[in-house]
Amino acid sequence: MANVHSWLIDDSPASRLQARLGRLYRICGALSRNPLAAVGAIIILVLILTAIFAPLIATHDPLKQDLAQRLLPPGSGNWMGTDELGRDIWSRVVYGARITLVIVVLVAVLAAPAGLIIGAISGYFGGWIDRVLMGVTDIFLSMPKLILALALVAALGPGIENAIIAIAITSWPGYARIARAETLTFKNAEFIAAIRLQGASSLRVILGHVLPLCTSSMIVRVTLDMAGIILTAAGLGFIGLGAQPPLPEWGAMIARGRSFILDQWWVATMPGFAIIIVSLGFCFLGDGLRDVLDPKSGEQR
Amino acid sequence: MTALSLNNLDISYGETQITHGISLDIAEGESFALVGESGSGKSTVLKAIAGLAPQWTGSITAFGQPRTHGIDQHFARHCQMVFQDPYGSLHPRKTIDAILSEPLAIHGIGNQNGRVEDMLVAVGLDRKFRFRYPHQLSGGQRQRVAIARALMLEPKLLLLDEPTSALDVSVQAEILNLLKRLRREQNLTFLMVTHNLPVVSFLCDRLAVMRHGRIVEIADVADLKRGALQETYSRELMDISVAHAG
Amino acid sequence: MSTPLLEIANLRVSFPTQKGMIDVVRGVSFTLGRERLGIVGESGSGKSMTGRAILKLIRAPGTIRADTFRFDGIDLLQQSERAMRRIRGARISMVMQDPKFSLNPVMTVGEQIAEALQTHQRLPRRETRQRVLTMLEAVRIDDPERVASLYPHEISGGMGQRVMIAMMLIPEPDLLIADEPTSALDVSVQAQVLDIIDEQVKRKGMGLIFISHDLNLVSSYCDRILVMNTGEIVEECQAGELRNAVHPYTRGLIAAIPRLDETREELPVLDRSAWVAQ
Lengths: 301, 246, 278
Description:
The complex is a heterotrimer. Chain A is an all-alpha fold.
């Protein structure tokens, strides 16, 4: 262990791999010294583990109805109680983690790279390319996110896949804006000029030299946005345009629990807690990452 | 053979014309300095040659071949540039190894490992720096990396934009010695922009004094050392430099 | 000299790092009368930190310690942040390196100079304006009326630095700290700006601390010179005596500067082990 540690923090790494891992290690170290970020990271880790091991963690089948057991309060048999169809809420929340994680990951994978590339191209080339791309971006930005997502889902038809596509389409413009701003700040930097002078193609400059500098702020932004994405997904689920029954999606679960909110509070509250905790987790982690990855303050220490 | 020949070069940024009719010839193996105050257009000339200021008329000929306006791969093999600010000219997220390998990768040159190692030795950097990030290096070490990067493609002409003005004097001495040695060993041609006349005395053979985008005088460095520059403005610059040295 | 303007003994400025406290200034002692003192050193020598420490401008978590730290009889270490704010500007001023970053881009030059005055003194508007124009004239700005109404981006670097000097001098401080005041300027403008500082300092009988990396520049504008290296003063001498410096670091620095009539094939390089071992 001590060996691995000293290998990682070695001032004079012997290979590129060691240098990269060392940097990663330092970032993780800095992150673990930031209490809120650590809490956030633990929450996200728990979410991921829950999603992976859902069948082991869940006590019941999330889809199995048992009308004799409907609307039971939290107790030893059903930790979070049961819903109006007698399904175990704990098990549904646990399986819901899978859906949430899928939504979040897919949106991040679709929207962030798209925004990143569009923004970087726009910022790097400038001129009419910039005007066209940013014009499109502005059109998307000018529409309220939820309304746009609603319209898209309404057009594509309700369902979790369409909800993901809709959310991704509404979130890339923000990333494009950031990537463009970042690109503009170092587009005229000498290290970019130097690489151009070596004969690198524009594609190579953007992919190999501009994008790596945008990624850290992008990671921070995406992490911070995760909370919003989860909430949008839950919102779509809530109004019945996201995940369709009987899928245990948290937003949809709250929607169904709404009818019993006064007498059987747990039906809506438990998935609500899950949403709050996971959203907070992403926010904390994002804040911590910002402190660590910020090119202006991090790295220098 | 002439390494670089500028003929009636007018460079503009947008509507503003920066230089007016710059003409000069630099022989192969020569070390030539462009001196002047800020705003004299000396750095702009360097940028135009490098391809970073593409808006010009007149002609630039390097090693007998006319230069196009943009940046091209072929030209990159002959001519490279070292920038003024060692903090701004290295990519902050890449290791020294990655920075030095990149030009080889762009041009599909093999034996990257060996070439990077050799170059580190040539610019006097210890092997332990190879996988460090720029922020782990001092200003002088960074400038050595920048010089190494410029030499990776084995160019014949090196454009130097105030290569030591951001450095401490003791580090400046090291870098100047290094440049002098590399020039001797690799038979390089230097075109250096600077405002520091003593540096010109140390490193160059000839100089051109620039003012308001025009060349005022072209002279041998021997004349500079003897204090025998002809034009009034050149003499003013020289006098300030002498007064400054106390 | 009667009572010195500034008395500093064993000044230490430390910053915490992951490897423990690091002293960037390590036991600096000097006294300053109404004279021109130069502090020379390379980057990382602690020269700027010394200058900032005098104004207590070291940001937390950095700390300042000293055995004696007195300005005109006032113990600076005992002063609260509020008391320091009354001293800064009014009694001790500082000119920074780059006017581009020190001037407010949305205020005219005249307004900024007036503000520097009004922060410390209440004067009728007409008199303030008169003082501003006189000050601009004093820093050799030919057309003070016009320049006062310009914005910082409309003036050149040299003019900007003169405006900065005007701003710093208008409250008539007793001590001026100039930290690399001309490094961002052309050599010809440099001399002009330094002459102005020199003239003002002499006329008002102020103390001047001139911080620079440039040995030659400091030796031609100061009476006395401190050479700093790695947080310590390694050499103290009269400006004219610099050529006879004894410390290997100072001698090394002088030798490393190329000369206009350069004939050396190679410049001597500092051998840092020479004095670290001592």
